[in-house]
Amino acid sequence: MRAIKRPFTDINALSMGMLLLLLPTILFMIIPTIVVVILIVSLIAGFLVRGYKFEAARTALNKKFNMPKWEAWKNLFARGFLGWVIGIIYMVPAMILILIAIGNVLYSIALQFGLNQGLNFGDKISDQLIQSSLLQNTAMIPIFIIGVLLALLAAYLTPIAIMKFVDKYNFKKAFELKSVFRKAFTGKYFIAVLAVIAYSLIIGLLASALSLGFSSINVQFLTAVMGLIISGLSGFMTLITTYTIFGEVYSKLK
Fold this sequence. Notes:
The chain is mainly alpha-helical and 254 residues long. The protein has helices at residues 2-5, 11-30, 35-61, 73-113, 124-136, 140-168, 177-184, 187-215, 220-250.
Protein backbone atom coordinates (compact mmCIF):
# COMPACT_ATOMS: atom_id res chain seq x y z
CA MET A 1 0.00 0.00 0.00
CA ARG A 2 2.89 2.37 0.79
CA ALA A 3 4.28 1.87 -2.73
CA ILE A 4 0.87 2.69 -4.26
CA LYS A 5 0.47 5.89 -2.22
CA ARG A 6 4.04 7.07 -2.79
CA PRO A 7 3.61 8.90 -6.15
CA PHE A 8 1.00 11.16 -4.51
CA THR A 9 3.15 12.21 -1.54
CA ASP A 10 4.70 15.01 -3.62
CA ILE A 11 2.43 16.53 -6.26
CA ASN A 12 5.24 18.70 -7.69
CA ALA A 13 7.47 15.67 -8.27
CA LEU A 14 4.52 13.77 -9.75
CA SER A 15 3.69 16.67 -12.09
CA MET A 16 7.29 16.93 -13.29
CA GLY A 17 7.41 13.21 -14.05
CA MET A 18 4.13 13.39 -15.96
CA LEU A 19 5.35 16.40 -17.94
CA LEU A 20 8.59 14.67 -18.97
CA LEU A 21 6.71 11.54 -20.02
CA LEU A 22 4.24 13.56 -22.09
CA LEU A 23 6.66 16.13 -23.55
CA PRO A 24 7.42 14.22 -26.80
CA THR A 25 3.69 13.63 -27.41
CA ILE A 26 2.85 17.28 -26.74
CA LEU A 27 5.59 18.42 -29.13
CA PHE A 28 4.33 16.04 -31.81
CA MET A 29 0.78 17.35 -31.40
CA ILE A 30 1.96 20.98 -31.72
CA ILE A 31 4.70 20.67 -34.38
CA PRO A 32 4.58 17.17 -35.94
CA THR A 33 7.18 18.04 -38.61
CA ILE A 34 10.18 18.33 -36.25
CA VAL A 35 10.67 14.58 -36.04
CA VAL A 36 14.40 14.66 -35.21
CA VAL A 37 13.89 17.17 -32.38
CA ILE A 38 11.02 15.08 -30.99
CA LEU A 39 13.19 11.93 -31.05
CA ILE A 40 16.01 13.73 -29.21
CA VAL A 41 13.61 15.15 -26.62
CA SER A 42 12.03 11.70 -26.22
CA LEU A 43 15.43 10.11 -25.51
CA ILE A 44 16.50 12.82 -23.03
CA ALA A 45 13.16 12.82 -21.20
CA GLY A 46 13.10 9.02 -21.14
CA PHE A 47 16.54 8.74 -19.57
CA LEU A 48 15.70 11.43 -17.00
CA VAL A 49 12.51 9.65 -15.93
CA ARG A 50 14.35 6.33 -15.86
CA GLY A 51 17.07 7.85 -13.66
CA TYR A 52 14.43 9.28 -11.35
CA LYS A 53 12.66 5.93 -10.90
CA PHE A 54 16.05 4.37 -10.06
CA GLU A 55 16.54 7.03 -7.39
CA ALA A 56 13.05 6.21 -6.10
CA ALA A 57 14.11 2.56 -5.91
CA ARG A 58 17.35 3.43 -4.09
CA THR A 59 15.57 5.54 -1.47
CA ALA A 60 12.98 2.78 -0.97
CA LEU A 61 15.85 0.34 -0.52
CA ASN A 62 17.12 2.61 2.26
CA LYS A 63 13.64 2.77 3.87
CA LYS A 64 13.00 6.36 2.77
CA PHE A 65 9.63 6.70 1.12
CA ASN A 66 9.35 10.39 0.38
CA MET A 67 9.48 11.16 -3.34
CA PRO A 68 13.04 12.10 -4.37
CA LYS A 69 13.71 15.67 -5.47
CA TRP A 70 14.11 16.43 -9.14
CA GLU A 71 17.75 17.53 -8.88
CA ALA A 72 21.21 16.55 -10.11
CA TRP A 73 19.76 16.24 -13.62
CA LYS A 74 23.06 15.11 -15.14
CA ASN A 75 23.18 12.21 -12.70
CA LEU A 76 19.57 11.28 -13.44
CA PHE A 77 20.31 11.26 -17.16
CA ALA A 78 23.56 9.27 -16.81
CA ARG A 79 22.03 6.70 -14.46
CA GLY A 80 18.95 6.37 -16.64
CA PHE A 81 21.17 5.74 -19.66
CA LEU A 82 23.29 3.16 -17.80
CA GLY A 83 20.15 1.37 -16.60
CA TRP A 84 18.91 1.23 -20.19
CA VAL A 85 22.27 -0.25 -21.27
CA ILE A 86 21.99 -2.92 -18.56
CA GLY A 87 18.56 -3.93 -19.85
CA ILE A 88 19.84 -4.11 -23.44
CA ILE A 89 22.86 -6.24 -22.47
CA TYR A 90 20.67 -8.73 -20.60
CA MET A 91 18.41 -8.97 -23.64
CA VAL A 92 21.22 -9.42 -26.23
CA PRO A 93 21.35 -13.29 -26.23
CA ALA A 94 17.57 -13.45 -26.76
CA MET A 95 17.63 -10.83 -29.50
CA ILE A 96 20.42 -12.67 -31.36
CA LEU A 97 18.52 -15.98 -31.38
CA ILE A 98 15.20 -14.36 -32.37
CA LEU A 99 16.85 -12.39 -35.17
CA ILE A 100 18.63 -15.53 -36.45
CA ALA A 101 15.31 -17.41 -36.55
CA ILE A 102 13.28 -14.61 -38.14
CA GLY A 103 16.15 -13.60 -40.42
CA ASN A 104 16.35 -17.07 -41.97
CA VAL A 105 12.63 -17.08 -42.76
CA LEU A 106 12.78 -13.56 -44.27
CA TYR A 107 15.85 -14.50 -46.30
CA SER A 108 14.04 -17.57 -47.65
CA ILE A 109 11.03 -15.42 -48.60
CA ALA A 110 13.30 -12.89 -50.29
CA LEU A 111 15.00 -15.59 -52.36
CA GLN A 112 11.72 -17.13 -53.49
CA PHE A 113 9.69 -14.01 -54.11
CA GLY A 114 11.99 -11.02 -54.32
CA LEU A 115 11.72 -8.13 -51.88
CA ASN A 116 10.91 -5.66 -54.65
CA GLN A 117 7.60 -7.41 -55.41
CA GLY A 118 6.15 -6.92 -51.94
CA LEU A 119 4.01 -9.14 -49.75
CA ASN A 120 0.40 -8.77 -48.66
CA PHE A 121 -0.91 -10.48 -45.54
CA GLY A 122 -4.27 -11.95 -46.47
CA ASP A 123 -3.27 -12.35 -50.12
CA LYS A 124 -3.44 -16.06 -51.10
CA ILE A 125 -0.10 -16.20 -52.92
CA SER A 126 1.69 -14.27 -50.17
CA ASP A 127 0.21 -16.51 -47.46
CA GLN A 128 1.27 -19.64 -49.33
CA LEU A 129 4.79 -18.26 -49.75
CA ILE A 130 5.09 -17.43 -46.05
CA GLN A 131 3.78 -20.89 -45.07
CA SER A 132 6.23 -22.52 -47.47
CA SER A 133 9.14 -20.54 -46.04
CA LEU A 134 8.14 -21.46 -42.48
CA LEU A 135 7.96 -25.14 -43.40
CA GLN A 136 11.39 -24.97 -45.02
CA ASN A 137 12.84 -23.40 -41.89
CA THR A 138 11.31 -25.63 -39.21
CA ALA A 139 14.79 -25.97 -37.68
CA MET A 140 14.50 -22.29 -36.75
CA ILE A 141 11.40 -22.88 -34.57
CA PRO A 142 13.34 -24.28 -31.57
CA ILE A 143 15.84 -21.41 -31.89
CA PHE A 144 12.97 -18.90 -31.90
CA ILE A 145 11.32 -20.56 -28.87
CA ILE A 146 14.63 -20.56 -26.96
CA GLY A 147 15.05 -16.88 -27.88
CA VAL A 148 11.59 -16.04 -26.51
CA LEU A 149 12.29 -17.98 -23.30
CA LEU A 150 15.60 -16.16 -22.89
CA ALA A 151 13.78 -12.85 -23.42
CA LEU A 152 11.34 -13.73 -20.63
CA LEU A 153 14.23 -14.75 -18.38
CA ALA A 154 16.05 -11.49 -19.13
CA ALA A 155 12.90 -9.48 -18.36
CA TYR A 156 12.60 -11.35 -15.04
CA LEU A 157 16.27 -10.87 -14.08
CA THR A 158 16.71 -7.25 -15.20
CA PRO A 159 15.00 -5.55 -12.21
CA ILE A 160 17.36 -7.39 -9.83
CA ALA A 161 20.35 -6.43 -11.98
CA ILE A 162 19.11 -2.83 -11.96
CA MET A 163 18.74 -2.90 -8.18
CA LYS A 164 22.32 -4.17 -7.80
CA PHE A 165 23.43 -1.23 -9.95
CA VAL A 166 21.21 1.23 -8.07
CA ASP A 167 22.30 0.11 -4.60
CA LYS A 168 25.70 1.85 -4.90
CA TYR A 169 25.37 3.15 -8.48
CA ASN A 170 28.05 0.69 -9.54
CA PHE A 171 27.58 -0.46 -13.14
CA LYS A 172 29.67 -3.63 -12.74
CA LYS A 173 27.47 -4.91 -9.90
CA ALA A 174 24.61 -5.45 -12.36
CA PHE A 175 26.59 -8.26 -14.00
CA GLU A 176 27.42 -10.31 -10.91
CA LEU A 177 25.33 -13.11 -12.36
CA LYS A 178 25.64 -15.54 -9.45
CA SER A 179 24.21 -12.96 -7.07
CA VAL A 180 21.57 -11.83 -9.58
CA PHE A 181 20.28 -15.40 -10.07
CA ARG A 182 20.37 -16.13 -6.33
CA LYS A 183 18.29 -13.07 -5.49
CA ALA A 184 15.93 -13.46 -8.46
CA PHE A 185 14.94 -17.05 -7.73
CA THR A 186 13.44 -16.42 -4.32
CA GLY A 187 9.84 -16.48 -3.20
CA LYS A 188 9.89 -12.82 -2.12
CA TYR A 189 11.09 -11.54 -5.48
CA PHE A 190 8.71 -13.80 -7.42
CA ILE A 191 5.75 -12.48 -5.42
CA ALA A 192 6.97 -8.91 -6.01
CA VAL A 193 7.06 -9.53 -9.77
CA LEU A 194 3.52 -10.93 -9.70
CA ALA A 195 2.38 -7.89 -7.67
CA VAL A 196 3.99 -5.53 -10.18
CA ILE A 197 2.36 -7.32 -13.13
CA ALA A 198 -1.06 -7.28 -11.43
CA TYR A 199 -0.75 -3.60 -10.48
CA SER A 200 0.36 -2.63 -14.00
CA LEU A 201 -2.56 -4.51 -15.56
CA ILE A 202 -5.10 -2.91 -13.20
CA ILE A 203 -3.75 0.61 -13.80
CA GLY A 204 -3.65 -0.03 -17.55
CA LEU A 205 -7.27 -1.21 -17.58
CA LEU A 206 -8.43 1.73 -15.44
CA ALA A 207 -6.57 4.20 -17.66
CA SER A 208 -8.10 2.66 -20.79
CA ALA A 209 -11.58 2.75 -19.27
CA LEU A 210 -11.21 6.41 -18.25
CA SER A 211 -9.87 7.39 -21.67
CA LEU A 212 -12.75 5.56 -23.35
CA GLY A 213 -15.20 7.30 -21.05
CA PHE A 214 -13.90 10.77 -21.92
CA SER A 215 -13.79 9.95 -25.64
CA SER A 216 -17.53 9.22 -25.51
CA ILE A 217 -18.18 12.84 -24.50
CA ASN A 218 -17.37 13.83 -28.10
CA VAL A 219 -15.51 17.02 -27.23
CA GLN A 220 -12.22 16.66 -29.11
CA PHE A 221 -10.13 19.11 -27.04
CA LEU A 222 -11.34 17.72 -23.71
CA THR A 223 -10.75 14.15 -24.92
CA ALA A 224 -7.19 14.99 -26.00
CA VAL A 225 -6.31 16.82 -22.77
CA MET A 226 -7.78 14.18 -20.48
CA GLY A 227 -6.16 11.43 -22.53
CA LEU A 228 -2.77 13.07 -22.01
CA ILE A 229 -3.32 13.54 -18.27
CA ILE A 230 -4.51 9.95 -17.80
CA SER A 231 -1.61 8.58 -19.86
CA GLY A 232 1.03 10.62 -18.00
CA LEU A 233 -0.44 9.92 -14.56
CA SER A 234 -0.87 6.18 -15.06
CA GLY A 235 2.57 5.84 -16.66
CA PHE A 236 4.47 7.69 -13.95
CA MET A 237 2.47 6.09 -11.14
CA THR A 238 3.33 2.65 -12.49
CA LEU A 239 7.05 3.43 -12.77
CA ILE A 240 7.35 4.78 -9.22
CA THR A 241 5.20 2.13 -7.57
CA THR A 242 6.94 -0.69 -9.45
CA TYR A 243 10.44 0.36 -8.47
CA THR A 244 9.40 1.19 -4.92
CA ILE A 245 8.22 -2.42 -4.63
CA PHE A 246 11.50 -3.69 -6.11
CA GLY A 247 13.49 -1.44 -3.76
CA GLU A 248 11.61 -2.69 -0.69
CA VAL A 249 11.95 -6.34 -1.71
CA TYR A 250 15.63 -6.04 -2.65
CA SER A 251 16.44 -4.79 0.87
CA LYS A 252 15.09 -8.10 2.22
CA LEU A 253 17.01 -10.38 -0.15
CA LYS A 254 20.34 -11.91 0.83
